[in-house]
Each structure stands twice: as structure tokens, then as C-alpha cells.
Design brief:
- The complex is a heterodimer of chains A (398) and B (363).
- By secondary structure, chain A is of the alpha/beta class.
- Chain A is 29% helix and 34% strand.
- Chain A has five helices and 31 strands.
- In chain A, the strands form three sheets. In chain A, strands 1-4-7-10-13-16-19-22-25-28-31 form an eleven-stranded parallel beta sheet, with no helix packed on it. In chain A, strands 2-5-8-11-14-17-20-23-26-29 form a ten-stranded parallel beta sheet, with no helix packed on it.
- Chain A starts with a helix and ends in a 6-residue tail after the last strand.
- With 363 residues, chain B is α/β, with parallel strands linked by helices.
- Chain B has twelve helices and 17 strands.
- In chain B, strand 5 and strand 6 (135-137) form a beta hairpin.
- In chain B, helix 1 (10-19) runs parallel beside helix 12 (343-359), helix 3 packs antiparallel against helix 4 (81-87) and helix 7 packs across helix 10 (249-260).
- In chain B, 45% of the residues are buried.
- Classes of the chains: A alpha/beta (398), B alpha/beta (363).
- Chain A binds chain B through residues 1-4, 7, 59-60, 62-64, 109-110, 113-125, and chain B through 18, 21, 58, 63-67, 86-89, 213-215, 217-223, 344, 347-348, 351-352, 354-355.
């Protein structure tokens, strides 16, 4: 097939229509926008490559080139998806791309040549149908974008000053703290798709409690003086970014505790600073990535991946803590890479073997892989207990 | 009757299949002298012992390019190989498969019902249409076919000479004149028959899969071609239709082997071979076709260097307007479509002809 530029673009748009329709249905079922975002990105990547690369490179395009061209487009698409942090799950995203690719092949090789008399000799141009396809696609994307904007959660501004809590959020919303906004007594997230930004939380049983909801984002918050945990997550998927949790003076509390959310997909704790508490960041039965955080002055474990969790702790810095720095326990599977653990001190008052100032400890049938960690000036560099496995890899295990 | 096709060969037959998408057999008159659309082609293919088509999956007479012959081959051969070959541009239907396809289409399309067994001698423009030897039609497609075999002037009358498209056997020493697909086929045929072969040609043949570069089968190449000034277009056309045959070991290996054995060589002029095969194709230009020559003369139509000037949609500009259409398909339509003498070319003209009859206000 020798496409004209217009024919190439019109064919692509026509082939994307059923995929977009499927993506809209999927978005409605999942209550997530990534399917529509992904198809929009597929259209953008495809048209860009059509105009800038494929049209110039291929005066004639044999049918077999659908495979390598599709692979290149998939590579570009996934690079953008991950480069720009679009939260599309890998397998469904691949399935959607595969469906789009297959639709394009079937449309170009069979459907359109069958439906349109002069399809091949017109270089893939569809005449009025091409215009209709373009308009339909623009309307579909426009409609989706409009729906997205209309359905955006309301932004609630929390003014500067102290607000008495506990504050219970029981609807979709973005709680945006103005500079100097403080909530005394904690925040309870009781609805899906809540985002909390730039708020300082003082006191409360837990500083911020998230229980049984989805899509919570906690961004740029400061928590201090909580009685139990700084940020307490149960049965919920969360993203926690750039937070500060001060647990000094609370010997038994945990800075960030994410537990029992294995079925909620990946959670993430990134860029936070945690000071004090028994455990800095801990997960139980959870799939959570813990990346780029700083933890210090904890009395139990600085970062603990525990109780059949699967997770990665990467690029974290742990300093001046008691007991254990990086802990992988109770049949968990852990990947510790590029972490820095400095100055772990033994908990001499406990007299326990597993609190000897260990930089890394794998405990009770857990498996931990280590790669490129800096372990400096610790009482003990690493150890295992009760049939746990600790592997130091020359290359990452993922 | 609303529409007439003049010519009952493969170009007329392919056009008929397209017209049948929207017209009943009773609305189409096909004028021709042979009810078998492949009659002339069959003889020529047999003469050069052709076994495979040069065209690929969409070298067929159906109105749409899909499904092609590869699909029917999958069913017939009970193998997915034809489809895989088609994806790789390596599928070539056999001559038998193609002829069966023509026969099936002929039976199911009502071709015989539309056929008027008569040779049209004169096409005359009249008010609102055309007069074809006494019958009037608003829309006419001329598909007169090739205007006869081309034998170089200097070889006419030579008793050793036979045209490749005429039935023949092979002598012990054979000279093949020409450098296209028919010539290449004859080199291999004569070598296989045990002959010593001399190839006489004026230029080295172009090696390409199809008659013209692939992008000239679509608007991608045609738009630029249609924009060329007449003299430039003539030059481009000469380049495009220069003799060619496909690349590949299937052609090269037997020739190289025979050359090593001293049984194949290239020369510039005839020698003393016992047989001279002219693989020199067909006579070219409207003047060699009595119907077209008369049409041009009587209507003072524009021509350039033997080619009838056509609009990009393969219609005769001076005789086509909102109420009537005179279109040309097959070899004489190269001004609009360089590969007009292929099945894809016939389909191109037919699609546009149907488009015009569809939009015509008198229909």
C-alpha cells in the first residue's frame, strides 16, 4: 500500500474510532481516565510518526511492516506513559494498545479496502468518511476531556490558621492548604479520590487516617504530634509524596504505616522525611514502593517491609537510628537498592539479637535482594534470622 | 441501458464487475466479439508458457482490492502459505487460479446477459451521450485492449520470426528480442527446452516486482505524475513502461548457469539463430486502434506523442461533462494511469467511471 499523507492519517483515525469507543466504555467501568488518555496518546504518537517519519520513510508500505512499526509505536508510547507518570497499569495498557494495533491492521488490510472501492488507489484516503472520522474522534476526545473537567473534584481551600479537627473528608475533593493552614486533631479520609495538599496536621489519634478507600493522594503535608501513627493507611491505595512526619517523643508510633492493601494495587511513599517513632515507614501485607525518603532517629526499624509484603525500598537515606535500618520480615519479598544507611546503633536495653544496630536485616523466611546500597559506620552491616535469605546482587533482580 | 462498455477482454470484464456493484446486468451493455473475457489473454499466457501471474494478491477482477486471490488460494490449497506470502509481497497466483477466478466471476456476475456480441466500429459524441453504431448511451467506457502484436519493422517478413504471444515451439538455437517479462520467460523456456539462447536487446531490463514502481499504483505517485506538463509526462511514461521483469534467483540462477555452460549470451543484433522470438509486446499508441483513431480524428481530440490525453480520472476531457462520460480503460489509458494495462489499472478506470455515472444528474 502506498499511502498519501492524508490517507495515512485518515486511515489511522478511522481505525482508532472503535478503540476509543472501547476505551470510553472501559473508563466508565473502571472509573479511571487512563484508557482514554492512553488512546489519545496513541493517536498523538501515531499521527506524529505518520507525519514526521513513516510518510517520508515509506513510499510503499508492505503489510509485514505493520509489526515493526507497531513495535516502535508501542516503545514510544510506553516511554511517554512512564516518562510522564501516566498511571496506566502495564498489562491492560498493553492490551489496549494491542487492540488498537490489531484494529489498525484489520482496517487497513481488509475493512477499508472492502468497504471503499478506491481505497488502495486513493492512497488510503477516505473522502468524506475521513473527515467524519476526524470529527468523530475530535468530538469523542473533546467530550471525554469535557467530562473529565466537569467531574474534577472540587478544590477546598483551607485558609491560614488553626482549624479544629478531626477533619473528616467524606466526598471527592482536593483539600488545598494555604500557607500556614493547620488542622489540629487529625484528618480522616472516608471517600475515594481525595487529595490532600500542603496541610500541616498536629495531634490526633493518627495524624492522617486513610481506611478502605481508593485513589488517595497525600502531597506536601506535614504531620506532627500524632498519638499513634503519623499517616495510617489500611485497606487503601495511596500515593504519599514530599511529606514530613515528626514522631519525636512517640516511642511506639509509626511515621507512615501502610497495611493490608495488597489487593489495591501499588502504593507509593516518595520524598518524605520521617523523624522519630518506633518505625519510620512500615508496610504489612502490602505492595508499596518506598523511594527517596529520609528516615532518622527511629527506635525499632527505620524502614520495614513486613508481613508478606512485596516491595522495593530505593534511594532512601537512613541515619542515626536505633535497632534496624532496612528490615524485611515475615515472608516478605524485598528489593533494597541504592539506599544509604549510616550510623545504626544497637538497642542495648533490649538485649535482642535482631536489634544490634543492623543496617539490613532479613527475618523469618523473608527474601531480600540488595543492590548498590551504602552501609557505613553501622554496628552490624547485615544479618538474617529464622530461615530468611539475603542476597547481594551484582545486578538488579527486576 | 444506461452504461456501455466497449471491449469484452479483461479490462472490460474488470470494469463490468465494478459496475455490477450498483447496476443490474440489464443496465450494462458490453460490446465485444468473444464471450470469454480471458480468451485473448489465455492464448498469450499459453504461448509463453506462463505459469504464475506477475501481479500479486490484488491482481484480480473484483471491484475491491480485498479479498484478493490469496484468500481463495488459502481455501483451495488448504494452507495459510498464500496469505503469509501475500503479507510479504511474495504471493503470485497461478495462471490456472486466475483463469478459474475469471470463470467464477463470469458465471455469477451476469456477464453473458450483458454481452452484446458485436464489434463497435465507431463512437460518436451526440447530445447527452454517445452513439455506438446506432445505439445511444450517456456513459461509455472504452476498453479496446491492445491494438495488435508488435514486431520490429526490420524483422517483418523474416520466416524465422515468431511473436512470443503466438503459439510456438523452440528450435535448437533461439534469439529472443526484447527485455521485458515475456522475454525473460522465453529465455527460461527455450533453455529448458535445450536450446542455445541469444538475448538481443537495446537496453538492460529494469528489475522490479510490478510493471511500474509500486507508488504509481496509488495517488501517492499519481498526484505528481498528473501534475507533469505534457512533454515531461511523456518522458516519465516512457521511463515507467520500459521493459522490466521481477528480481530474484528464480530468474537469475538458470541464466547464470546457462551462461557458464555457453548456452546463454547477450548480443546487440541478430545472428544466425534458427528461430527469432519477438518478445516485443504490443503496438503502442491510439493510431494502431481503428476505433480510437477514428474517435480522435472525428472529434479532434488532444493527443501527445501517440497517447490519448485523458483527465486523471481516465475520462476524455473534451467529451465528458456533467451529463455524459467517455472513459478509457486498459493500455490506451496510460496517460491517466501508467499501469493502465494491468488489472489494477482497469479497476482504477472502472472506479472513477462508476463514480461519474453515480454523480451524473441524468442517471
Amino acid at each position: 500500500m502506498s499511502y498519501t499523507l492524508r490517507g495515512r492519517v485518515e486511515t489511522r483515525l478511522a481505525a482508532l474510532l472503535p478503540v476509543l469507543l472501547g476505551a470510553c466504555v472501559l473508563a466508565g467501568v473502571l472509573h479511571r481516565w487512563w484508557p482514554v488518555e492512553l488512546v489519545a496518546l496513541m493517536a498523538a504518537v501515531g499521527i506524529f510518526l505518520d507525519v514526521e517519519v513513516w510518510h517520508r520513510l515509506l513510499p510503499y508500505q508492505p503489510a509485514w511492516t505493520s509489526v515493526p512499526l507497531g513495535a516502535v509505536e508501542l516503545g514510544v508510547l510506553m516511554a511517554i506513559v512512564y516518562g510522564f507518570g501516566l498511571h496506566a497499569p502495564l498489562l491492560p495498557a498493553l492490551a489496549l494498545f494491542g487492540a488498537g494495533w490489531l484494529a489498525a491492521v484489520i482496517f487497513a488490510q481488509a475493512g477499508l479496502p472492502l468497504l471503499r472501492l478506491g481505497y488502495a488507489e486513493d492512497g488510503g484516503e477516505l473522502g468524506r468518511a475521513g473527515g467524519v472520522a476526524a470529527v468523530a474522534l475530535v468530538l469523542a476526545f473533546g467530550g471525554s476531556a469535557a467530562t473529565y473537567v466537569v467531574r474534577l473534584p472540587p478544590v477546598v481551600h483551607l485558609s491560614a490558621g488553626v482549624h479544629q479537627g478531626p477533619l473528616v473528608i467524606d466526598r471527592r475533593e482536593v483539600l488545598q492548604g494555604d500557607p500556614g493552614a493547620v488542622v489540629r486533631g487529625g484528618i480522616v479520609v472516608a471517600h475515594d479520590d481525595v487529595e490532600i495538599r500542603n496541610v500541616t496536621v498536629v495531634g490526633g489519634e493518627n495524624g492522617i487516617s486513610v481506611d478502605g478507600v481508593r485513589g488517595t493522594v497525600i502531597d506536601g503535608v506535614t504531620v506532627q504530634g500524632a498519638k499513634l501513627d503519623g499517616i495510617h493507611v489500611r485497606l487503601a491505595g495511596v500515593v504519599i509524596r514530599d511529606c514530613t512526619v515528626d514522631m519525636l517523643g512517640n516511642r511506639l508510633g509509626q511515621g507512615i504505616d501502610i497495611s493490608f492493601n495488597m489487593d489495591k494495587g501499588m502504593s507509593m511513599v516518595e520524598g518524605c522525611t520521617v523523624v522519630g517513632g518506633q518505625q519510620g515507614i512500615t508496610t504489612h501485607s502490602s505492595a508499596t514502593d518506598i523511594m527517596g525518603n529520609t528516615v532518622s532517629r527511629t527506635t525499632g526499624q527505620a524502614i520495614a517491609v513486613d508481613e508478606m509484603s512485596m516491595g522495593m525500598a530505593s534511594h532512601n537515606a537512613i541515619r542515626n537510628a536505633l535497632g534496624v535500618g532496612l528490615y524485611c520480615g515475615d515472608r516478605s519479598m524485598c528489593m533494597f537498592d541504592h539506599n544509604t544507611v549510616i550510623g545504626m546503633r544497637p538497642d542495648t536495653t533490649s538485649g535482642l539479637r535482631n536489634r544490634r544496630g543492623l543496617a539490613v536485616l532479613a527475618d523469618f523466611q523473608s527474601e531480600a535482594d540488595l543492590w548498590r546500597n551504602r552501609l557505613v559506620a553501622n554496628a552490624v552491616a547485615m544479618d538474617t534470622t529464622t530461615n530468611a535469605i539475603l542476597r547481594t546482587s551484582s545486578r538488579p533482580s527486576w | 441501458m444506461r452504461v456501455a462498455v466497449v471491449g469484452s477482454g479483461l479490462a472490460g470484464f474488470t470494469a463490468y464487475q465494478t459496475l455490477r456493484r450498483e447496476l443490474a446486468p440489464g443496465d450494462i451493455a458490453v460490446f465485444g466479439t468473444d464471450s470469454d473475457p480471458a480468451a485473448a489473454w489465455r492464448v498469450r499466457a499459453a504461448a509463453i508458457r506462463q505459469r504464475e501471474m506477475r501481479s500479486e494478491s490484488d491482481g484480480h477482477c473484483l471491484p475491491t482490492s480485498f479479498p484478493g486471490l490469496a484468500f481463495s488460494s488459502v481455501r483451495r490449497r488448504r494452507s495459510a502459505r498464500p496469505l503469509l506470502d501475500s503479507v510479504l509481497d511474495r504471493y503470485h497466483p497461478t495462471v490456472d487460479e486466475f483463469l478459474s477466478h475469471v470463470e467464477r466471476l463470469r458465471e455469477r456476475s451476469g456477464w453473458d446477459e450483458s454481452l452484446v456480441p458485436r464489434r463497435i466500429e465507431r463512437v460518436q459524441a451526440v447530445d447527452g451521450g454517445f452513439d455506438l453504431d446506432g445505439e445511444r448511451f450517456p456513459h461509455v467506457l472504452l476498453a479496446p485492449g491492445h491494438p495488435g502484436l508488435n514486431v520490429p519493422e526490420e524483422l517483418r517478413g523474416d520466416s524465422r520470426v515468431v511473436h512470443s504471444y503466438e503459439p510456438h515451439d523452440y528450435a535448437a538455437t533461439v534469439t529472443v528480442v526484447g527485455a521485458g517479462l515475456a522475454a525473460a520467460t522465453e529465455w527460461l523456456n527455450a533453455l529448458a527446452a535445450g536450446a542455445e539462447v541469444v538475448s538481443v536487446r537495446r537496453r538492460e531490463p529494469v528489475r522490479r516486482p510490478l510493471n511500474v514502481p509500486r507508488h504509481y499504483f496509488s495517488r501517492r505517485g499519481l498526484d505528481g505524475y498528473h501534475r507533469l506538463a505534457p512533454r515531461e509526462r511523456v518522458e516519465r511514461l516512457r521511463t515507467l513502461i520500459a521493459p522490466s521483469y521481477p528480481p530474484g534467483a528464480r530468474w537469475d540462477e538458470p541464466l547464470e548457469r546457462a551462461a557458464r555452460e555457453g548456452r546463454f549470451r547477450v548480443e546487440q543484433s541478430l545472428n544466425g539463430s534458427a528461430q527469432v522470438i519477438c518478445a516485443t509486446g504490443f503496438r503502442r499508441g491510439f493510431r494502431h486502434d481503428p476505433l480510437l483513431a477514428r474517435l480522435v480524428a472525428e472529434h479532434d481530440l488532444e493527443t501527445v506523442d501517440g497517447w490519448l490525453v485523458l483527465d486523471p480520472d481516465s475520462t476524455v476531457p473534451a467529451l465528458t461533462d456533467a451529463g455524459r462520460t467517455l472513459a478509457v480503460a486498459g493500455a490506451p489509458a496510460q496517460w491517466a494511469f501508467p499501469a493502465a494495462d494491468t488489472l489494477a489499472g482497469a479497476r482504477y478506470a472502472a472506479h472513477r467511471f462508476l463514480g461519474r455515472t453515480r454523480s451524473c444528474r441524468t442517471r
